[in-house]
Amino acid sequence: MEFAGNRDTVVRHRPALRLLHWLVAALVLATWPLGLMIGFVKDDVKLDFYLVHESLGFLVLWVMLLRVGVRLTGAAPPVEGPALERAAAGTVHGLLYLFLILMPVSGFLATNAHGFPLQWFGLFKVWSPLGKAPDIAWTLSAIHEWSAWILLLLFALHLGAALFHHILRRDGTLYRIL
Ligand code: HEM
Ligand code: HEM
Q1: What pLDDT, on a 0 to 100 scale, did the predictor assign at position 7?
Q2: Can you list the positions of beta strands (E) in the chain?
Q3: Measuring from atom 36 of ligand 1, which residue has the nearest CA?
Q4: Which DSSP symbol is given to 170?
Q5: Residue 51 alpha carbon to ligand 1 centre in Å
Q6: pLDDT in tens, 94-140
Q7: Which of the two ends of the chain, N or C, has the fewest CB atoms closer than 10 A to its terminal CB?
Q8: Measuring from each residue's beta carbon to the nearest atom of ligand 2, which residues come in under 6 Å?
Q9: 15-176 architecture in CATH?
Q10: Could you tell me which of 106, 147, 16 has the C-alpha nearest to residue 69?
């Protein structure tokens, strides 16, 4: 059964959304492991890992806000298939959007609360609504860390679904985003 058509008949997302999808994917696939590595690298390079992780992660916030804006200016191509699958896809996509904004916001606020304002790639200091706030710093860090693992789980479901459509069901779902 071909719910989503095939390579030639599938209706794709708009070009701007396809571009932003892969830009965010590339940024997140670099930012996530860098964040985890902070806890394991030697002290003399730790600050560099913080800087690159935080600067790339901060970029995700702005690209995501742009992406939400673009997404709201037009409809996504219609999704076919059983109602349960459409609901599952919609839920995972919605949660991915949510966590891709929560991650950089929690990380940014956590670093400021710990007393380390973000120097974006060492170029300029980013204004923050929150100054040093030791009372909530560890809560914000905990939100950031928990969200990171939830995001990884969502990504695993997302990738699993993409592979399922492409390899097992052999429909055109993957081409919607290429
Ligand atoms: C999409 C964006 C981001 C992702 C996916 C991400 C992911 C991660 C991950 C996986 C970790 C390791 C968690 C652990 O050890 O269990 C981490 C740690 C960290 N991240 Fe991020 N991060 C993002 C954005 C940011 C931003 C924008 C900042 C700050 C401006 C930031 C600051 C930190 C800091 C300081 C740590 C290490 C210490 C801590 O947990 O407080 N992150 N991040
Ligand atoms: C690396 C391999 C990846 C593949 C093969 C892939 C594949 C896809 C496909 C086929 C769609 C279209 C689904 C549809 O409209 O029915 C899609 C949408 C989406 N992807 Fe990915 N993706 C990848 C990575 C990522 C990553 C790393 C993220 C974020 C962490 C992500 C977040 C999203 C979101 C939020 C949507 C929904 C777009 C919308 O409806 O506006 N993807 N992806």
Answers
A1: 81
A2: 119-120, 124-125
A3: 35
A4: -
A5: 11
A6: 999 999 999 999 999 999 999 999 999 999 999 999 999 999 999 99
A7: N
A8: 17, 21, 24-25, 28-29, 71, 76, 79, 89, 93, 96-97, 100, 155, 158-159, 162, 173-174, 176-177
A9: Up-down Bundle (1.20)
A10: 16
